[in-house]
Structure formats: C-alpha cells, structure tokens
Amino acid sequence: MPEPEPQLWGVRDLVGFLGGRWGVEREIVDAAGARIGSFSGVAVFSPVEWGLEFREEGLLELGAHRGPAHRCLHYRVSGEGRADVYFDYGTFFHDLDLRTGLWRVGHPCRDDMYRGEFRVWDRDRWRQEWTVVGPAKDHTLLTDFVREA
Is 31 helix (H, G, I), strand (E, B) or coil? Predict the structure, then answer.
C-alpha cells in the first residue's frame, strides 16, 4: 500500500521560502513510467531587486548521455506567494502561486504542451512535476527539492 501524501504547506513569503540553496533530485520517466534519465545537483535561489534568480547545476543522465547540465530562471515576484517565471533570455515561462501549497500550470512550447504541478510539503521540501506531451516529447520530470543546511 503506498504511503499517504504529506499535507500541503502554503507559502506567503515566496522570497523567504525559496531563497537559499536546495539539493535537487530529478527522475525522467517515459509515458509508461519507465526511467529514461535523471538529474542530480544543486539549485540556488538568490534574492535580486525584482524577486529571485534561480540557478541549477548538476549531472544529467539521459539515455547514453552523461554530463553537466544547468539552467537559469527569473522569478519576478507578483504578490504574496506569487511570481511570474521567465527564462533567463527574457521569455515568459509560467505563473506560480504557492499560497495553498499546490499550483498547476500549462506552458505551450511549439507543438508540445508542458503541464506543471508544484507541491510544497513543508519549509524544507517541495516538488515540481512536469509532464510534456506532443510530437517531439512524451515524458514526465519529477523533481524533488530539499533545503540544504
């Protein structure tokens, strides 16, 4: 019998909650649930004048590829517990509202559709789940974030 899911934890101060260093573990699974890759690394949310800059670095394993990977996103705070998330090159990615501890969002990327879900378990643990479906992709990325001391 699977373990019950933890209670959700609402976030009011997005900068205070996300700010800092997080351990990142990501599993990449195909539509049937088979593991096709992983990412292990660190994410840092740094406060800036408009919100938070997110930088992620680590090791990506995907099929036969094994190597370093990184990305940068900008979280522009838009209200209590909320932000608009942009790619580092300036294009809007998605909105985010963690006031209830749960947020669902969609993002079209060419002919593929990204469906995201964010769950906050407590002040030190949260999860992102992105399911990508379309002609180019059909997989899910399950990412767990655990605050580092």
Answer: coil
Non-local (6+) Cβ contacts of 1 within 8 A are: none
Phi and psi at 18, nearest 5°, equal -80, -30
Q: 144 and 38 in contact (C-beta within 8 Å)?
A: no
Percentage of the chain with pLDDT > 70? 97
Instruction: State residue 10's pLDDT score.
Output: 97
Range list of H helices, 1-149 = 14-18
Tokens 């919100």 appear where?
A: 51
CA dihedral 74, 24, 7, 139 (to 10 degrees): 80
Q: Report the run of H or E that residue 8 belongs to, with start and end.
A: none
Cα 24 to Cα 111: distance, rounded to the nearest angstrom: 28
Question: Alpha-carbon distance 142 to 92, whole Å?
Answer: 22
| pLDDT tens figures, 112-137 | 899 999 999 999 999 999 999 998 88
| Cβ partners under 8 Å of residue 71, min gap 6 | 54, 55, 56, 88
The residues, ordered by sequence, that sit 6+ positions from 139 with a Cβ below 8 Å of its Cβ are 28, 29, 30, 31, 36, 131, 132
